[in-house]
TrEMBL record:
Stretches assigned to the NAD-dependent epimerase/dehydratase domain: 5-132
Protein name per Swiss-Prot or TrEMBL: UDP-glucose 4-epimerase
Compositional bias segments (type: Low complexity): 203-225
Coiled-coil positions: none
Source organism of the structure: Methylobacterium hispanicum
Family, similarity comment: Belongs to the NAD(P)-dependent epimerase/dehydratase family.
InterPro entries: Epimerase_deHydtase (IPR001509), NAD(P)-bd_dom_sf (IPR036291)
Pathway stated in the Swiss-Prot or TrEMBL entry: Carbohydrate metabolism; galactose metabolism
Gene Ontology biological-process entries: galactose catabolic process via UDP-galactose, Leloir pathway
Length: 233
């Protein structure tokens, strides 16, 4: 029997492409998606979703729907989320509910129905403005973009008021959680990286201080193998 990958939020932009890619690699694919209006309008299953996908309509916060979607699954890719930095700043309850309670509901179910591997999509938003370099060559991790008048430079300024230069941002950069969306995505990461090693493996995303995804291997037991690591960032 082929492995069965469950993609939460799999009717969305990334999920539809991922579903096709997994099918092409020989997986069976199931999607759990509530088809939110903001993304899908009237709520019809999107045309871009491969017809070979087993589509399950449901909310990732609904424990019953999650348990049904998990039946027989060997892999999970968790993409279901409210997506957007700006909107998260006024739709606070909705973002926290879907992104964090939804992830908690999924992991609660995974304790009872473990899989070989779980992948969670994080977001670059957890790095805030990313890394900047000053004229003097100093690297700045906590750049803040202040309101600008028209014609003024857009990039953040250094202590002397000179624009700084954006530079590539590695995943080891300290988080800079400047929006509700960033907070909720970081929570998804940490929940994954806390529970995976506690339940299923001693080395989930080894060495990753600020990982974008996490993986867990086949559980040997449904009780924690080791106490939770704490304080690692
Ligand atoms: N697109 C990007 O550039 C980007 C960048 C970084 C991270 N991500 C992350 O990748 C994931 C997928 O992003 P996307 O661009 O495909 O977003 P999308 O909005 O196109 O897809 C999200 C899907 O989740 C579904 N959904 C929303 N709430 C749900 C709920 N409560 N229960 C079940 N399904 C629900 C939506 O109906 C939608 O189909 C998200 O977790 C997002 O945070 C996306």
């Amino acid at each position: 029997m082929k492995d069965l990958a469950l993609i939460t939020g799999g009717a969305g932009f990334i999920g539809r492409h991922l579903a096709s890619a997994l099918l092409a690699r020989g997986y069976r694919v199931r999607v759990l998606d509530s088809l939110i209006e903001q993304v899908h309008g009237a709520g019809a299953v999107p045309r871009g979703l491969d017809p070979a996908v087993d589509f399950v309509a449901g909310d990732v916060r609904d424990a019953g729907a999650v348990a049904r979607a998990l039946a027989g699954a060997t892999h999970v890719v968790h993409l279901a989320a409210e997506v957007g930095v700006g909107q998260s700043m006024y739709a606070v309850e909705r973002y926290v509910s879907v992104n964090d309670c939804g992830t908690a509901t999924l992991f609660q179910a995974l304790i009872e129905a473990p899989v070989k591997r779980v992948v969670v999509a994080s977001s670059m938003s957890i790095y805030g403005e990313g890394l900047y370099r000053t004229h003097g060559g100093a690297t700045i991790e906590d750049a803040v973009r202040k309101p600008r008048k028209p014609g003024e430079p857009w990039d953040p300024l250094d202590a002397e008021g000179r624009p700084m230069r954006p530079v590539p941002t590695p995943e080891t950069k300290r988080p800079a959680l400047a929006s509700v969306y960033a907070l909720t995505k970081y929570m998804q990461e940490r929940l994954t990286l806390t529970l995976a090693p506690a339940y299923w493996t001693s080395a989930a995303s080894p060495g990753a201080s600020v990982p974008r995804s996490a993986a867990s291997r086949s559980p040997a037991t449904s009780t924690p193998r080791r106490s939770l690591r704490s304080g690692r960032r």
